[in-house]
Design goal:
single chain, about 450 residues, alpha/beta, Rossmann fold, six-stranded mixed β-sheet, four-stranded parallel β-sheet, 16 helices, 13 strands, about 40% helix, binds ligand F0G
Length: about 450
């Protein structure tokens, strides 16, 4: 690893380590907190290691038309801002990143916002934002000579890890909560060859167990407590800034589960700002499901100074997390940028997901909390109509097809969950109909759907 250029800093007590010194569970031996990757050379105003803002913008754009393998990755295209490897030849890539930024005209009109976009991280190789983090941390695992890697997961991390491990020629172990992840994600881990254990535990229990296992066996932990994951996951911030010609949007809205992603995006924008690539940071807001909202409670009860774990329950299984590991990092991002933290109900998630589907994009339920959260922020007067807003869609709609089908069949929500929203839901539902195989019957069905 490139220990000359980077070090790890504990976000609790400030202790600094080289990459090789950190404990296998990525917790500080002194205070138990998590680490953040730091690049000491960047703080010297004129030092040889401080990246040059103008040159980088030009270089990164040039790489979009390069034929070099690494330049095809939307993560390693920005490698000057993630010098974590001894040799970039060790990078394990599936050409992740470079995801589309879509305009959302219907939602924008309904909300009275001029500029509303979706950065669709579900368009990554395994269908979620986890790929951008996995390429970075898997490359470190490979460079450090590990044979086994592992993660606890609500599904997407395991799918991404299994794919990148296969590409790197490493073996991998997946711990998932039994019956609580979407089948599409489980099928990916199996397809890519992971050793998959379904445990009678929730995500938080799986992660606690894995933390013990990595202390006993030479297995590299690839959950987002691993700070190299966040180095990869910060790069969508660079793509967003680049897409807006380096004048960042006013507001970025992100789903919150284990809270690694919001932390990573905040770090990405903070670094762009500190290095002079952008003049300001966007507000970053984090939205949780009401049944899995420990960070929301923390802000309400004690301004984010302490976090009380909750028993999590939501159909947005990706964010069914009651004891998020990176909560302190996320609190800092929300407070530094002036964003908000709020939660949305199961009905609000389902409606928002159907609306994103109706834009021709689709996403998995956990991603839809962003639009549901935006509606609340707008209704509460927190976002002006002139502001530019980006929703971060974290997973592809095909990840959880059962959820979508249940919604359109009308079997997803209990009547008491849908109270007051029945008309909206009815307007969005598009159930598949059984129709006789005659032109007349099909045309009658067509007529019935108009109006
Ligand atoms: N959206 C999706 C689709 C996710 O899979 C996750 C997390 C999140 C949002 C929340 O991101 O944890 O960084 O706050 N999924 C993890 C997993 C926990 O195991 O796949 P976060």
């Amino acid at each position: 690893m490139n220990d000359n250029l980077h070090q790890l800093r504990c976000i609790g007590c400030g202790a600094r380590l080289t990459g090789a010194e950190v404990q296998p569970d990525f917790r500080c031996a002194q205070c138990g907190e998590l680490f953040e990757v730091e690049y000491p050379g960047w703080s010297q105003r004129q030092g040889p290691d401080r990246p040059n803002a103008g040159a980088l913008k030009w270089l990164w754009r040039e790489r979009r038309s390069s034929s070099e393998t690494l330049d095809h990755s939307g993560v390693w295209r920005f490698r000057e801002l993630l010098p974590i490897l001894e040799s970039f030849g060790n990078a394990v890539t599936l050409f992740e990143g470079n995801t589309p930024l879509y305009h959302l005209p219907r939602a924008a009109k309904a909300l009275g916002i001029d500029q509303l976009f979706a950065k669709h991280q579900g368009m990554n190789p395994t269908g979620s934002f986890k790929d951008t983090g996995m390429t970075a941390a898997m490359s470190v695992a490979k460079e450090r000579g590990f044979e086994w890697v592992a993660c606890a997961s609500t599904g997407n991390t395991s799918a991404a890890m299994a794919a990148y491990a296969a590409r790197a020629g490493l073996r991998c172990l997946v711990l998932i909560p039994e019956g609580k992840i979407a089948w599409g994600k489980l099928s990916q881990a199996m397809d890519y060859g992971a050793v998959t254990c379904q445990l009678k535990a929730d995500f938080d229990g799986c992660l606690t167990l894995l933390t013990q296992i990595v202390k006993e066996a030479p297995i590299y932990l690839l959950n987002s407590v691993n700070p190299y994951r966040l180095e990869g996951q910060k790069t969508p911030a660079f793509e967003i800034a680049e897409a807006f010609d380096w004048s960042v949007p006013d507001h970025l809205i992100v789903p919150g589960g284990n809270l690694g992603n919001s932390s990573a995006l905040g770090k990405g924008f903070r670094e762009l700002h500190d290095l002079g690539l952008v003049a300001r940071m966007p507000k970053i807001s984090v939205i949780q499901a009401a049944g899995a909202n420990p960070l929301v409670r923390s802000f309400l009860n004690n301004q984010g100074t302490a976090l009380e774990p909750v028993e999590a329950d939501t159909r947005a299984t990706a964010i069914r997390i009651g004891n998020p590991a990176s909560w302190r990092k996320a609190v800092r991002v929300i407070q530094d940028t002036g964003g908000w933290c709020l939660d949305v109900t199961e009905a609000e998630i389902a409606i928002a997901k159907a609306e994103i589907g109706a834009e021709g994009l689709g996403c998995e339920p956990a991603s839809a909390v962003t639009l549901a959260g935006l509606k609340k922020l707008r209704a509460g007067g927190k976002i002006a109509s002139s502001e530019t807003v980006v929703l971060l869609l974290t997973g592809h709609t095909l990840k959880d097809a059962d959820y979508t089908i249940d919604f359109h069949r009308g079997t997803l929500l209990k009547p008491e969950e849908a109270v007051g929203r029945e008309a909206e839901i009815a307007r969005l539902r598009r159930n598949a109909q059984a129709v006789e195989a005659t032109p007349a019957a099909v045309l009658a069905a067509l007529k019935g759907s108009v109006g």
